[in-house]
Amino acid sequence: LRALAKDPRQRFPTAGALAQALAQWQHYSPSIPKASPRASGGLYRPLASRSRTRGGPPRATTSATDIGCATWLVGSAILAGIVALVVLAFQLVDLRALTGTSSQPVPSPTLVAVVPSPTPAPSPTPEVSPTVAPTPTPEPTPSPSPTPEMARVPDLVNSTLRQAEAAAAAGDFQLSIEEVFDNVIPAGVVVRQDPPAGQLLEKGSTIRIWVSKGPEWITLIGLAGRPYTEVLQQLQNLPVTVEKVEEGSRTVPEGYVIRTEPAEQVRNGGTVTVYVSVGDRVRVPDMYGKPYQQAIVTLQQAGLVVRDVIPQTCDEIRRAFPTFDCEQFPDGGVVSATLQWNSWVPRGSPIDIAYYQKQPSP
Asked: Taking a C-beta distance cutoff of 8 angstroms, is the pair 302, 284 a contact?
């Protein structure tokens, strides 16, 4: 009954000790007679002997037999409990502890009452939703590249720029235009092209052409003494800018070129000033506001004849020019003349001038 003691310290420390105690108990315990079970399932007790001795009452069974049966039953129950504990010990204790093969000392375990834990209810297995495989996107079948349409390059050399543009458009080509100086090919004409004429080229491609700007330097010799209308027409065909200046001349007839600036050559894209004769005439210098003494000299140098020089007061001037500012206008300044300023008049024409004369304060 030590194996079933309530105090763990009173129990066997190991399963080996329990097995050794069980073996000693079986060796030293008296033999126990075997009992036959009754039909009713109760305990068997031997019946009183039917033989009786003469003249005496029957003998009762000895108490030793009853004690032996009770001891056997109790021992069997204890043995069954021990066997159950041994089996449980074998399940809980490592086999090396029983066989003594462990190299390490086996600590004395503290026996704890084993309380069976309730078996946890199995958790429900989650339903696995079927995975839908993605539908593969069909790769588009590459369409065959169309064969480019080809055309022959037109001949553009010696064509004008307008003609070259029309020819390129007819063949569905583009033009890349660059201007260059050329002393032979006139301005506006194609000097060369790339690719050359006759070569097969994909439609929509670009043809590069070089267009002449004419010579870098333009000769101007032979223009003087010619009618201005002819000279102007010639210069307009060149890449230059023309400016006209009228000038009186006693030797060059009216309407003819007196001279040009520059005289011999002008750079391509430059400006040519053409001086045209107005005949034997002079331009009336603008002398308004200038001192009348200076005006007399300048007019005479221009080829005019100064006749009368007339002083005028503020009131007299305001009769002709109501907005005349007497306070700001200089004393002695020219206010008018009988000829229009900057007009062309025959040489030796007479001219009268008037000037402002301030009155002394009273």
From this structure: yes
* Structural domain for 158, as ranges: 150-212
Residue after which a domain boundary falls, among 259, 279, 299: 279
Confirm if 191 and 143 have CB atoms less than 8 A apart: no
* pLDDT of 128 strictly over 60: no
Pair (188, 243) in one structural domain = no
User: With contact defined as beta carbons under 8 Å apart, do 272 and 262 qualify?
Assistant: yes
Do both 6 and 72 map to the same domain?
yes
How far, in Å, CA of 224 to CA of 228, rounded? 9
**Hey, what are 1's tokens?**
């009954």
Q: Judge contact between 287 and 354, C-beta under 8 A.
A: no
Decide: 281 and 345 in contact? Cβ < 8 Å: yes
Do 250 and 319 belong to one domain? no
Please report whether residue 331 resides in a domain: yes
Instruction: Assess whether 156 and 203 both reside in one domain.
Output: yes
Comparing CA positions, the residue from 281, 279, 284, 280 lying closest to residue 351 is 284
DSSP symbols for 285-333 = ---TTSBHHHHHHHHHHTT-EEEEEEEE-HHHHHHH-TT--TTTSPTTB
Contact 305, 348 (CB under 8 A): yes
Question: 207: helix, coil or strand?
Answer: strand
| Number of alpha carbons in the 13 Å side-chain half-sphere of residue 293 | 2
Identify the band that residue 106 occupies on the pLDDT scale cut at 50, 70 and 90: very low
Is the preceding omega at residue 195 within 30 degrees of 0, hence cis? yes
Same domain as 346, residue 292: yes
240 domain residue, yes or no: yes
Contact yes or no for 360/337 (Cβ under 8 A) = no
What CATH number is given to the structural domain containing 298? 3.30.10.20
Sole residue written with tokens 């696995």: 128
296 in the same domain as 248: no
Q: Which of 59, 79, 98 is the last residue of a domain?
A: 98
200-240: pLDDT as tens digits? 999 999 999 999 988 889 888 899 999 999 999 999 988 89
Which positions ≥6 away from 111 have C-beta within 8 Å? 8, 11
